[in-house]
Amino acid sequence: MGRTRLLALFAALAAVVAVPGTALADGGPDPLYYVPISTGDLPAPDAGQWQYSSPGPVRTPTADQPGPSPYCWDRARPWTSEKWISTLFTVPVPGNYYSVTSLAWELPSADAARAAAARWNADLASCAERYSPARPVGKFGDEYIVDFKKASTVDGADVYSFNWGHTMYSPPPGAAYDQIVLLARGKYVSFVRSHYFCTGKCAPRAPIAFDKVVAGMNRGLIRAGG
Description:
The chain contains four helices and seven strands. It has a seven-stranded antiparallel sheet with strand order 1-2-3-7-6-5-4, sandwiched between helices.
């Protein structure tokens, strides 16, 4: 029961993904479709293969479904965008859950996108406190993080890491490792989160390298016209 809820939690992080049929009124693809990364932007996993998990269209936020915000965003403030899209990649390996979520938003303007990215970077300073074991968050209010830090800088983009925990399942140190990065270009914002946790008797895995990920994010933003 606990694992079922955990898997539902991470599936919810990526409700939809664009498909080639997503189009504008003139028949061309929505530029936002080009922003998320693809399997070619991910390093090969040490077991299995990356798979798309959540096909769907570009979404327009509504009052009932405002859309997701990037991880560590201070939810005391609204995250607003014109449109959003999400892609989830997973590696089906028994006893493990390994995923990468790629989120992209179209904001009203380039200034709005830059301001959102700057605000997110400022929010990182309080992320560990806001997501601490004493103040769990997430869809079910039961997710927390520890050991939050800047892990690397790739082509000028800072990649942050943390160990993830859950009130229903407390992973051993290093067995639930996440990395996050956010980029803004033009009126588009691109965000990637890699997540791994071990649900069985398995050794912790090394975090995935973000060199190809950041290159793919920049390529997608440029292709979208950012």
